[in-house]
Amino acid sequence: MRKSRFTPGQIIGFLKQAEAGMVVTELFRQHGFSDATFYKWRAKYGGMEAAGAQHLKALEAENGRLKKLLVEAHLDIEALKIGFGVNASPATQTRGGAQVPRGQVPTALRQPLERAFAPNEVGSTDFVSDALASGRKLQCLVIADDFTHECADIAVDHGIGGPYVTRTLDQAA
After folding, report:
1. What pLDDT does residue 171 have?
2. Does residue 122 come out as left (phi exceeding 0), alpha (psi in the -120 to 50 range) or beta?
3. Coil, strand or helix at 46
4. Can you give the pLDDT at residue 11?
5. Is 2 helix (H, G, I), strand (E, B) or coil?
6. What is the C-alpha to C-alpha distance for residues 150 and 29, in angstroms, rounded to an integer?
7. Pairwise CA distance, residues 152 & 82, whole Å
């Protein structure tokens, strides 16, 4: 967000000048701001003293910081859900006329999975994709050990390509 050229104390001073009887159009020209800006300031700071405006600015800054913390906490929760395999609503798709959960292969095309008899013998990978509130996509690559059912690695990024996957799998091996 763009920072104002004027401090809250100056803004309240402009409002008091207008209340004291100074012509508002002269106030605009003298200090270099628009009439829309003046009326926006009057709605926000009208009847307020300088100390109250400073307190309001501090509360707005704290509110912005808390919103960022909340977003980070929600991202952490989603990453943990992904890591533990929690899927609240599996999406489905149509394959061969039947509704099949997305990512599943029809029964006729399935091959038996290799069974793990010791840790680090057989692993599984999964991709999860979501979007942030800003619309930017977020992708997760989950690597799990099939014997211990432990999550070996979770790679979270805004874009996961082939080289990124191979590098992550090499590091997990």
Report:
1. 83
2. beta
3. coil
4. 85
5. coil
6. 68
7. 13
